[in-house]
Amino acid sequence: MADAPSDRVEIYRAGGLPEAHALVLLLDGEGIPAWIDNELLQAALGDLPLGWATAPRVTVSRAQEAAARALLARFQKPPAGTPRGAATGDLDCLACGATMGTAHACPACGWSYRQDPEPDAEPPAAGPEAGTAAPASGTEAIPSPGGAESPSGLSRPALWGEVAAVLAVGVVPNLAAAVASACSPTPPPPYWVDAVQLTALSGCQIFVTLYLIHRSGEGWGRFGIARPRGSDLVLGLVLTTMAGLLWAALPDFPSGGSKPGGYPFPLPRYPADFALLVVKYGTATFAEELVTRAYLVTRLEVLLRSRTEAVLVAAVLFASYHIYQGAEAVVYALAFGVMYGAVFLVLRRVWPLAVGHALYDIQIELLAV
């Protein structure tokens, strides 16, 4: 039987998940859907080098094979100025660009492809003998735990400044409003006023965050912003279900996600209100996922050099502006943030998170009506 155009064919076996994901992002940016086989197997294998059969396999549909292989050739082509040995299959350091050969640690700067270098492995000091000059203090590229570095060229203080700018528009206003509401509760405004206010605030947060990402020159795919797919809706429904199960696992969590005094937000009453409900939560949840997951987790895993710490810090910030709903709501928001942050690390796509979050919030409000 003839091969169908939709059949998946392997175009590349990567040396690890970071390389496989880099190729998939390149293909996805050119409109070519790609998949990684053996991805879950890597978590089971850890650092065991079991060989070619267990390596991550990048696959595309047969109809896209020719275009994908053309991009693969560009992906594999050494850039101008690549150190000697890179074209022969030797590893290059992703921090300073020096040739590493088959060593785990860079002989020039000590950076390693391994996520958990051996405790007794001491990187040699950089100097003239290593064949490359040490970078100027405060301006070096900052590698992340997975081997990918921030390609923007910004120094560590500059990256922290960028993060502070996003926090100033994406977290601090929400936290200030939550503190004010907790200290001095006020009656809910008319539904349309609340919807317009939240939509406008969320729109400003989205604009500033996307603008800073664009200015960094690092590409949208690095922050999980790619073309929406039909699978994003399916994954969003799965995440909505997971959020409901997480809620059910907290037995004392008050109904509706509010304080014991009642649901703290205005509720829709008229047909126009229900239309605003979709707009309000569609915009607000995308802003929250863009800021607290797509942006903060991506930036903090580089700055903190730890994916776990990045997810935890982002989750704490997300939970902080839910304090007006009570302690139990903060605990739930923290658990929700950890779960969504972990899912983002696996998917590296913001759309499923935004869809799942929006559907969950809409469901909660409809149940409170």
Number of helices: 11
Question: Which ranges are low-confidence, i.e. pLDDT below 50, for 5 or more consecutive residues?
Answer: 82-88, 115-148, 254-261
The largest sheet has its strands arranged as 1-3-2
Query: What class do helices, strands and sheet pairing give?
Result: mainly alpha
Number of strands: 5
Estimated helix fraction: 40-55%
Radius of gyration: 23 Å
Query: How confident overall, as mean pLDDT?
Result: 79
In short:
With 369 residues, this protein is mostly helical. 51% of the residues lie in helices and 5% in strands.
Tell me what the structure shows:
The strands form two sheets. Strands 1-3-2 form a three-stranded antiparallel beta sheet, covered by helices on one side. A two-stranded antiparallel sheet has the order 4-5. The protein folds into three domains: 8-76, 2-Layer Sandwich (Alpha-Beta Plaits); 92-135, no CATH class; 156-368, no CATH class. Helix content is 51%, strand content 5%. It is globular, with a radius of gyration of 23 Å. The protein has eleven helices and five strands. The longest helix is centred in the last third of the chain and has 33 residues, at 271-303.
